[in-house]
Specification:
single chain; alpha/beta; 7-stranded mixed sheet; two-stranded antiparallel ribbon; 6 helices; 11 strands
Length: 238
């Protein structure tokens, strides 16, 4: 059987750092909310069987989105941490996904994922049988600080990357890695870190720095700029 491709979007966070009255994934961005852009970027890839959106148990906004009625989009209950939400979504796929299937995990607050980057990730990972993630090389000088907020050292940035999403791993490998980390109380900040803790290989796939994560209010106009630019490129190619 040919391995299938699934996607998970952990969207159970409350966006406390953003300081808005509603979770940042529901803030308006151009003609949609942030989450709609993030999920639509995945739906544009026809090889994805379904997108599972992991929501806060008290989420009452997702059901109001037209996106929630898309037959390829399924809402599941998420957990208190990102890793919990991803694991719960993986469990929701039991009986449908096989261990050999591939699972993309994409941040709810990354609305600027390009089609080219998504296709590149799939080509460099699933097509070569090694999981990995989109990432961007660091271009700034990197300082390590101390507890007095003073410079402790300047780090060599030549081998440093910023982790982006989506991240793509085998269904069985990712579920086992998340369970291993939970059992051993290991910190999981993204899916790649779970795979690393459990001894797996992770490929770095160069992605666009425009694939930003909405974290602070000033990120919204920047995301709008990038989305406008992407639409202009798509129109020019059509």
């Amino acid at each position: 059987m040919i391995p299938r491709l699934w996607a998970i979007v952990p969207a159970a966070g409350t966006g406390s750092r953003f300081g808005a009255t509603q979770p940042k994934q529901y803030l308006p961005l151009l003609d949609r909310c942030v989450l709609e852009h993030s999920v639509t970027a995945l739906l544009d890839e026809p090889r994805i069987e379904a997108v599972l959106v992991a929501l806060h148990p008290n989420d009452d906004h997702f059901a109001t989105l037209a996106l929630s009625h898309n037959p390829r989009v399924h809402a599941v209950v998420g957990g208190s941490e990102r890793a919990d939400s991803v694991e719960m979504a993986l469990l929701a796929l039991q009986g449908q996904a096989s261990d050999a299937d591939w699972v993309l995990v994409h941040d709810a607050a990354r609305p600027c994922l390009s089609r080219a980057d998504l296709q590149s990730l799939i080509a460099e990972t699933a097509d070569k049988h090694c999981g990995g993630l989109l990432a961007a090389r660091l271009v700034d000088t990197v300082k390590r600080g101390n507890d007095r907020d003073e410079v402790d050292a300047t780090l060599d940035r030549s081998q440093l990357w910023r982790a982006l999403t989506p991240q793509l791993f085998r269904y069985g490998e990712l579920l086992a890695a998340l369970r291993y980390c939970r059992k051993n109380q290991l910190a999981v900040t993204d899916e790649a870190s779970a795979i690393e803790h459990s001894g797996g290989r992770v490929r770095l796939v160069a992605g666009s720095a425009a694939n930003i994560k909405i974290t602070y209010p000033e990120d919204l106009p920047l995301a709008a700029f990038y989305l406008h630019a992407q639409r202009g490129e798509e129109i020019a190619k059509s």
